[in-house]
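Single-chain item
Fold in token form
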Amino acid sequence: MVEDIGYAYSKDGFNFTKFKGNPVIRHEDVPNCAAMAEVHFLIEYPRIYCYHTLRYRESPDQKNDAWFEESWIEHLGIQILEDKQE
């Protein structure tokens, strides 16, 4: 499973256009990240705070590998984007 964060925009709420610069946050840039899902965001311009479910590639505590393989371990992930085009 691979999930990154990207976005799309719409002028009418029905027809969406994907942003050409997607993904805006790549899972490869977050240590031990297998996927980022269920994204919500808060805009405090020029910053955008992305809150998401963080799914791991390997057991984050390095102690319970067998348990990790049989279940999902998820945490809250937070990524911050900043628009530097002011």
Summary: The beta strands are 8-9, 17-18, 33-44, 47-56, 74-82.
